[in-house]
Design goal:
Shape: elongated
Distance between the termini: 41 Å
Order of helices and strands: HEHEHEEHEHEEH
CATH superfamily: Flavodoxin domain
CATH topology: Rossmann fold
Number of helices: 6
Number of domains: 1
Helix content: 25-40%
Largest sheet: 7 strands, mixed
Strand content: 15-25%
Bound molecules: flavin mononucleotide
């Protein structure tokens, strides 16, 4: 009888442990919103790695009208105008409400030592409903102030530690993102 009772308690404990969310589920109902532009799709690649680790929904930010082609004089003139006038491009409406998620990752390429314009436009128009938000930024060689600027521009979100990766870290992107996400889960 005593043995049966102990066994019964053990079975209940195992079932309870299986049913209760553990540490690994802290990032459940997670959203990844990202923008990517270069042919390599560095931010998109990072977003996919992150999705593999978190099982998140993933949404790409799209400009409302296409930008001038990268590396052309037209693009440089357009970008300079955006910077000088502090104007931001219009982006298409997101198909989801970030505030309905428990954790939101925002991925951006580094542009001019800061956020890419579309992600800046997203932050200017998004209320994160007090939810945790973390930035991952992909740079070539100099991430500048991207993470600080991100923190300053998030509206109504709890900004968590972000990560900025340089492309010379390419072979380590997956390991670095994994380490970062595990840190966020603690
Ligand atoms: C307009 C523009 C500005 C950029 N400015 C920077 C910069 O300040 N520092 C840097 O390290 N890389 C800069 N880059 C390079 C991108 O950050 C880098 O290539 C990034 O990995 C691209 O991400 P993507 O493939 O997701 O577009 C810039 C790229 C563009 C198009």
């Amino acid at each position: 009888m005593g043995k049966k009772l102990v066994l019964g308690i053990m079975v209940v404990c195992v079932l309870l442990l299986a049913a209760c969310p553990g540490k690994q589920q802290k990032l459940d109902k997670t959203l990844i919103v990202y923008y990517t532009w270069s042919e390599q799709g560095n931010t998109e690649n990072a977003a996919k790695i992150l999705q593999g680790l978190t099982n998140a929904d993933m949404v790409k930010v799209e400009p409302a009208t296409p930008f001038p082609e990268l590396d052309t004089g037209e693009f440089i003139a357009w970008a300079r105008e955006q910077l000088e006038n502090q104007s931001l491009p219009e982006i298409k409406d997101l198909v989801v409400d970030p505030a309905s998620y428990d954790f939101i990752f925002i991925g951006t390429p580094v542009w001019y030592g800061s956020l890419s314009f579309p992600i800046e436009a997203l932050l200017a128009t998004t209320d994160f409903g007090g939810k945790p938000v973390a930035c991952f930024a992909m740079a070539n060689s100099n991430e500048g102030e991207v993470l600080t600027n991100f923190e300053n521009k998030v509206k109504n979100g709890q900004v968590k530690e972000g990560i900025a990766l340089r492309m010379r870290d390419e072979t380590e992107v997956e390991a670095k993102i994994t380490e970062w996400v595990n840190g966020l889960r603690q």
